[in-house]
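Example record for the data management plan.
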Amino acid sequence: MARSLFWFLVVAAAWLASTYVFWMGYAGTDDIFYARYANSLHRLPLNHWEYRLPAVYLMRLSIFLFGPTEFAAALPTLLSSLAMLASVAWLIDWPRRPTWQANCGMLLFCFMPLDISFRSYPNASYIAAGMLAVGSVAMLKGSRLVQYLGAGLMAVAFLTHEVSFFYVAIFCLTALAFDRRRYWYPVIACVAFSGGLFAIEAAIYYSITGEAFARYTRASAAIGVLEAGRDVRVGASPLSFFLWPLKNVLFCKQLAFSLLLLFGSGLLVFGKLRKEQKILLAVMILFWAYLGYGSLVPWTYKPLGRAWHYYYLLVVGIAALLPYTLTLALGERERLSRAILLFTLVALVGCAAAGGRWGQNVDVSRELLAYAQAHPEKTFLTDVNTMNQMYVWGGFQLPENVICLNGEPVEKHLLINKEPEDTPRYEFPRQEYDAVLLNLEGFVERKPFANFQEVRQSLTGEREVIVPPRYRLVFLPWLLVAEPRDFMIRSRGGAVVHLDPTD
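Corresponding structural encoding:
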């Protein structure tokens, strides 16, 4: 009992510490659309983010309870991370049996960069992943009643994010392939629950909007711009596009080489695994293959973009299986197993500490907002991206003494103007400004923001650094003895340019 309590506290401390040190929060992308709609719910859904209503309502409940804060918006995903961690614990019978493999699996989950990066980032796909993880283990290990509850939870995950459909299909078919007698009724229940929720959703949307499949129409429109062999995140080369999933097996910042260890050792000892372990391993391999090379629609080849926000469930498989498959693969060489897993854990922490610049622009916007609020006697100008981030961070209120230049950027890109076409557009007061707030990390240099770019290039006033550059955690020891390099930068920071009254 004392040993179980000790390791429970160790794992809890590891999860809390990794969440605090690597907190993401708002990143200024999909999250701000979810959070803004959850806070207001002022009209029918307009885009694919807003149609993911289970996630939206969970965020709304959290905002109602704790106020319009970043923490409140992130709370549903934090709870989803804990749900995934609990599903790993359930599968490996932890902490009731705190073996070294079980303890290692729990720590692997806590420090996996793929989970650390997204557990505090408000988004529907992560919330759906938490439901899928618990539902999967409930169907694998639970009694018949618990299996039905798990099936219902997986159906709700499908309602939360439409891409969950493919995981549910893979899981159900794999479970039937291994043991039709045990899983036939839970799979039928999952199909029935999913079909029932689908029909109810379609009927509600048809009665309100006249469009039964509104959610799927918006989702397909959002992914319609993707083309096979093209994704700016991995370069323009079709070869890079199709090699991306394979490269991630060998090594990637989100998983290090843990996926290679799992697939390699798991296939070597597949026959020695328990039935639920075999099913989970097969599901992980098939789901990885689908995400990398499957199609979103059957009538044409439409692969998913090369992004990580569908891969969360791989963390559950790695944490629950890797310590056991590696131990079985190495046989009596237990010290080598422990050494490899310890090295893997260190590599994962190192990858997390080498985290990049995604989301750092919001941190800069937050500090620029604090500076503006501390100088209420002045009026500041900034770009629309920074304004959107200030708006969300500030509790969905535009700052009183910060403005943008009216025009196409405000009309098309200001978050509060993301409304139906017949809605009047907000315009900022036309007034003189005393200084310009520059988000050096988040400024978007493209045509819609050309008017602010012209202002920025013409600035001749005194520049005051408000947010100093920040560096990736892994390079902090280097900075004690040598000068920083560009690749070490995590955030370029922010500044204010005080204008000369004669300008």
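Summary line stored alongside the record: The first strand starts at residue 380 and ends at 381.
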